[in-house]
Amino acid sequence: MVLIYTTCHDEESARKLAAAIIGKKLASCVNIWRIGSIYKWEGELKEEKEVAMLIKTIETKVQQIEDLISSIHEYAIPFIGVLNIFRVNRKYKEWMATVIE
Prior knowledge:
Blueprint: E1 2-8, H1 11-23, E2 29-41, E3 44-57, H2 62-72, E4 81-84, H3 90-99
Antiparallel strand pairs: 1-3, 1-4, 2-3
């Protein structure tokens, strides 16, 4: 199992992206929550509200999800980070196998 972390400009964009990912059976679940971010863009310090996404999936789906995010994301350069998960409880792993194709 892997987790993919990315952010969106607002909740509507995150929900649209999550629905596309789940609709294509690329992940078992997408968690969405509001966050605040501080970063530098084009020489200026920015402080924005964003929506974080944690996508629960398997390694073989990472590239498809990355391609999907890149194709519909509103940011010019979205962050897409992948975290390898060392261990997942068996029941969740078994359920994942039934929803990801």
